[in-house]
Design brief:
It is a single chain. The chain is an all-alpha fold. Helix content is 82%, strand content 0%. It has seven helices and no strands. The longest helix is centred in the C-terminal third of the chain and has 27 residues.
């Protein structure tokens, strides 16, 4: 549940909301979108059940299912939504040091390439 709270805090930070606003019954687009993001991260990364996610927000599991489906559609159609979601995801992963194996391997490759570039520059400067 601590990770879920971190998702909520991160979503509030990225979307400039308070936790009370996020958990409110408001139907303002930016608040609903923020909830959608939280539901999707909780479902995809934490593998939480729809019912458990719904219980935190005092919502029916069917409502959570609807929001996750809407999230998937918005990720394809709405660039602004997708950008905010990716920022939320990146910030959340940095906060809890969560990386899946593929992301970790990619990060290591990038760091090694950067290291080789710096070493070759140093060697080149020393030879001059």
């Amino acid at each position: 549940m601590d990770r879920f709270k971190e998702i909520i805090k991160t979503a509030c930070l990225v979307n400039n909301l308070t936790i009370d606003e996020l958990k409110s019954k408001s139907r303002l687009r930016h608040i609903v979108d923020s909830r959608r993001m939280v539901f999707s991260v909780a479902r995809d990364l934490l593998k939480m059940s729809y019912k458990k996610i719904g219980s935190v927000f005092n919502m029916n599991h069917a409502t959570i299912i609807h929001h996750v489906k809407q999230h998937n559609s918005l990720m394809v159609a709405d660039f602004y939504y997708k950008d905010r979601f990716n920022k939320l995801l990146e910030l959340y992963k940095l906060n809890i040091s969560y990386l899946n194996q593929d992301e970790l391997i990619e990060e290591i490759k990038e760091l090694k390439a950067e290291n080789l570039r710096i070493e070759s520059e140093l060697i080149q400067k020393n030879n001059e």
